[in-house]
Amino acid sequence: DKRHFRHFMLKEIHEQPETAELWVARHLPPDLSSDDPVALPFDHSFYADLERIQILACGTSRHAALVGAYLLEQFAGIPTSVFYASEFRYAPPPLAPHTLTIGVTQSGETADTLAALAMDAQRRQAHGEPAFAPRQLGVTNRPESSLTRQVPYILDIGAGIEVGVAATKTFLGQLLAFYGLALAFAARRSHRSVTEIANLKDELRALPHQLHSLVELHDQRCEVLANRFADTQDVIFLGRGINYPIALEGALKLKEISYIHAEGYPAGEMKHGPIALLDARVPVVSIAMPGVVFEKVLSNAQEAKARDAKLIGVAPECPDTALFDALLPVPEVSEWISPLLTLVPIQLLSYHIAAHRGLDVDQPRNLAKSVTVE
Ligand code: M6R
Q1: Residues in the active site (predicted)?
Q2: Cα(368) to centroid(ligand 1), Å
Q3: Ligand 1 atom index nearest CA of 171
Q4: 121 alpha carbon – ligand 1 mean position (Å)
Q5: How confident is the model at residue 339, as a pLDDT?
Q6: Which residue's CA is the closest to the ligand 1 atom numbered 8?
Q7: For residue 51, how far is its CA from the centre of ligand 1 (angstroms)?
Q8: Torsion sign (Cα): 239, 240, 241, 245
């Protein structure tokens, strides 16, 4: 039931504060023991002797994996690679011992992801040494799916059924799963101080409330903005660092539900080719959050403006962000947490553009909720 919402997608975007609230209640309960940074359902063998992580996924799940890899490397200090499952299954990297393979799939039924995981398990078993034992984790919203029968460890994102073909609240749930893993690994490997871990946990606990205000604010702002951009033919999304995958996700959301051509780029790559596309007809959505690359993203936005592109900023309201033609404001938070907030305006902008064009937002043409064929 869509309740009073026009589409399931909009309802599911509005359910995100609740998704975050449930995640906090489950993984950061008030009675968490002081040596445990986060409550996860894993035993010691899951964490022991881990040297690297590889993540296999498709579509939006792969974008969550890219944020996850950033956290696992930069916050927890574990070398991590992300693969398109469809590529990995025919060209896996050489086997390396003490590797955890993570398959991320909302539905738990995506053929490429399941096949890539099966192939990885077989190769490890064939190798025969304990260091090559198939240590595999599935991150899913459907713990009753085929994925669960295939891998020894499961992390249920618990986002509830998602009806819209475009993933929204399950993307948030997947991201949160990676925040949990990054906290657990950072603490066990003493890669982060007690204070750094406590700060991230405090910000995660504040997330449900922040998401609530953001969804309300941007539902209105994006509806107004969508009227201006609904007839556009191409949109470029730019981000860097931990928000680069959010730029990819913004472009994917817009493509799949509005049929507008969109590309996501790491902002620093623009000058290596794509900048040739820019003119007054191409809006650029720039995700510019305070942190190591803030100034860089702003100067990349400035370069786009110099080519007459209309700039939409997903950024805090401050003098530095006055260059944007339109601002979708996001509060200043630590860089670690920022993708959990920047995802809201990019989802709502795509939603309102597609709704304004009168399209079937929940059932876009040529797409299915889960892709069970190769
Ligand atoms: O069920 P999965 O997470 O494995 O699905 C992967 C992709 O097919 C999926 O994320 C797709 O890209 C969505 N329609 C994105 O909104």
Answers
A1: 369
A2: 9
A3: 10
A4: 23
A5: 98
A6: 59
A7: 28
A8: positive
Which residue of 60, 172, 351 sits with most ligand 1 atoms within 8 Å of its CB, as the best mutation to test the pocket? 60
Res 199: pLDDT: 96
Output the residue whose Cα is nearest ligand 1's atom 16.
166
Residue 40 pLDDT: 96
One-letter amino acid identity for 228? R
- Choose among 243, 202, 262, 331: nearest CA to 67: 243
Instruction: Tell me which DSSP letter residue 95 carries.
Output: P
pTM over 0.95: yes
Q: Which atom of ligand 1 is nearest to the CA of 140?
A: 3
Q: Is the ipTM of this complex over 0.95?
A: yes
**CA distance linking residue 285 with residue 325, whole number of Å:** 10
Residue ID of nearest Cα to ligand 1 atom 12: 59
Is residue 369 part of the annotated active site? The answer reads yes
Distance 58 CA to ligand 1 centre (A): 6
What are the pocket residues of ligand 1 if the criterion is a CB atom closer than 6 Å to any ligand atom? Answer: 58-61, 105-107, 110, 113, 165-167, 256, 367, 370-371
Average confidence (pLDDT) per 10 residues, the chain, 374 residues: 95 98 96 87 92 98 98 98 97 96 98 97 92 93 97 97 96 98 95 94 97 97 93 96 98 97 95 93 96 94 94 97 97 97 98 96 91 88
CA distances, 184 to each of 30, 178, 366 (Å):
17, 10, 40
